[in-house]
Design goal:
The protein is α/β, with parallel strands linked by helices. The protein has one domain: 2-Layer Sandwich (Endonuclease, Chain A), CATH 3.30.870.10. Helices cover 43% and strands 23% of the residues. A hairpin with a 5-residue loop joins strand 5 and strand 6 (138-144).
């Protein structure tokens, strides 16, 4: 099996025409070098100028201007892990830029029979099944275009989106 990574993986985010959807199911992800310091600052309650996120925020705003959508559902456990709290903090900046992110409680996801794999679905036609190891390091994405597999993931996307809720509503449920 061939995995796309690096620049080839990044091109997936600029080459779709209409929509991109991500299902995130892990409690944490191995951080890219540019995210390690922001996480440290977050945990220390120090300010962050978000300069490390500017590329992603610009890309989200570009997609919105071009009429494309980027949606994500994050499956998370309670109590929230440090990584989940950090990602929620980041989402508060990413969402206004056009990154539509909803949250789904892990217990509910299990009841719904979700597969606990991470993936992106581009234009309802290309599935990028992410390959992560036990240390949460991304090794690349397997690109799948098989119509039955893609259709199954479209169904899971629709169920996830219908059952997930916006960030602040999700956070307030546990308050």
């Amino acid at each position: 099996m061939d995995l796309v990574s690096g620049d080839e993986f990044e091109k997936l985010f600029s080459s779709f025409e209409r929509s991109a959807f991500r299902l995130e199911t892990r409690e944490r992800y191995h951080l890219a070098k540019d995210e390690e310091e922001p996480l440290r600052r977050f945990l220390a309650e120090e300010p962050d100028d978000l300069a490390w996120m500017s590329g992603w925020l610009d890309l989200m705003r570009h997609h919105v201007r071009e009429g494309r959508s980027v949606r994500r559902v994050r499956v998370v456990s309670r109590p929230f892990s440090d990584y989940t709290r950090f990602s929620m903090s980041v989402a508060r900046h990413s969402i206004p830029a056009g990154d539509q992110i909803r949250y789904l409680d892990r217990v509910k996801a299990e009841r719904l029979g979700f597969p606990f794999s991470d993936w992106w679905l581009f234009d309802d036609q290309r599935l990028a099944l992410l390959h992560l190891d036990e240390e949460d390091v991304l090794h690349g994405a397997e690109i799948i275009t098989d119509s039955e597999i893609v259709a199954r993931h479209r169904t899971w996307r629709d169920i996830a989106w219908r059952n997930a809720i916006p960030l602040e509503e999700f956070v307030n449920l546990g308050a």
